[in-house]
Input
Amino acid sequence: MKKFINSPDSVLRDALIGVAAAHPSLRIDSDGRVVTRAAATPPGKVALISGGGSGHEPLHGGFVGTGMLDAACPGEVFTSPVPDQMLAAAGTVDSGSGVVFIVKNYTGDVMNFQLAAELAADVGITVETVLVDDDVAVKDSTWTAGRRGTGATVFVEKIAGALAEQGAPIKEVAELGRQVNAASRSFAIALTSCTTPAAGRPGFVLPDDEIEIGVGIHGEPGRRRGKIRPAAELADAMVEAILADMPLSAGDKTIVMLNGLGATPLIELYVLFGEVAARLSEQGVIIARSLVGNYVTSLDMAGASLTVCHADERMLALWDAPVNTPALRWGV
Amino acid sequence: MKKFINSPDSVLRDALIGVAAAHPSLRIDSDGRVVTRAAATPPGKVALISGGGSGHEPLHGGFVGTGMLDAACPGEVFTSPVPDQMLAAAGTVDSGSGVVFIVKNYTGDVMNFQLAAELAADVGITVETVLVDDDVAVKDSTWTAGRRGTGATVFVEKIAGALAEQGAPIKEVAELGRQVNAASRSFAIALTSCTTPAAGRPGFVLPDDEIEIGVGIHGEPGRRRGKIRPAAELADAMVEAILADMPLSAGDKTIVMLNGLGATPLIELYVLFGEVAARLSEQGVIIARSLVGNYVTSLDMAGASLTVCHADERMLALWDAPVNTPALRWGV
Output
């Protein structure tokens, strides 16, 4: 295993020290493993907290900042954060208007955020939870009951975060987050496995000409393996999987994210995005906004995920609202 | 070879179609292979043009937009663009105030930009050239006479681009670009090789426990190979190589980019950046601004480059000026 680490045991702590050095707009508790904005939550503002296993950077710490998250709780690589992290984060960022937990649907995450919500309620903090479960590849999988939560997390955090910044009450922020999740679908294809620092070897092995279709963001198996094919055909498969689950009509507006899983060159993501855009255009579907790049990664996995949100005008306006985080920044 | 491509021959063209679909703020001539801003150059504004082989994305097309480049000319993967591309770009973006060519120091690039400058002069376009040669690893290398041009290109394009946006005359814009290059140094370490679509196999092979120290952005050999070591020791080696060539004193302000070469997980870049920041801090050197992420890549190479610019207050102020490109965006 060749990685830029000091030891497999210290990866998260060492990375948080680097995040602190790079981003003065964030406050990092590297012992408690909580990332918050450096500025306190303004009175009346609902706070958004997310978290999950590390190894998916920039998710979630890279989305902390004005217009998006108030706090992120990173677990060890591919391991859920513990309830104490979310409880500490809630205590730090709650202004009295409550906190919204944004939780990717993995069994460990769901359980630990649920425990944290109960502990927070015990100390008088109002908590609403938004569950993200956008991956259409499989119904239940290695680490989930129900669908996995992946790329739609970025859309939920951005759009609900913008509404919270406007001072909306907690029920409304959480409800919009649920609407964004309900309007979003994802599907991923892996060309290679990934290697966690602790394991030191790939989680699975794909032959030189095979890909994993419908892979999860921890390398969990997808629908099937198949031969590598031209980008146009892979784009077909991704778009078809999503539209089969969420039909779209001509004139529908979407936010589309073509996300690299960590080791995919940007030039390849653009090739694939061009094909995705062509498929959607054939259906008359409008790509109103897009992201192409690495946003929800799986360490050093080569591959890509496609996330499509069927967005209404309110969602689009909130998407465009100012955001100032390490990984998404505009309007400020 | 497993890549998201349709065929090795169509990678650049297909990628440009994707760039066009993703970024309405750009205008893409996918036949002529020129990326420009969708908006015409305002009268009186000097235009900045860069370019080079593809495979380094987001460089250069990802840096076209307000506050940075006016045009980018992508060659085939790891192959210089041809003079006709730069001539066409100059004809498109020159407002009458002249164009500045920003050229990474590779023999093919230098020759082709020089030819383009002569052709442009023939049709009455004023051209100044800024050569970027920041890589301290080797004096001459596979593709260069003199030092290679790498990460400092981002600093030159951003800072000179901001000055051009303010309406400065061409001599001043070019002179500042040269100053930024002179104040910048880079050094890179590769953990793996990269695979071009045309070759279909890695350009070189590194044993499972070896790294290339001082590697170039096309996988050109560096200073030596060595065993993989902890991130703290690799950061030492990178910082030492740069400071040996450009001594810095306590209190000096810098812009620091810790750049992923394509396949390096962001969590590892943060681990390495934390160590780099600690080394610089021990010397009293101030990291006034920083970038951590993939900005000048080598396809799917795992590795990282460190670029340090010894910045004066003018450079810092221009760094902070608004920029609106696919890969760098703030203040707008």
In short: Chain A touches chain B through 64 residues (CB under 8 Å).
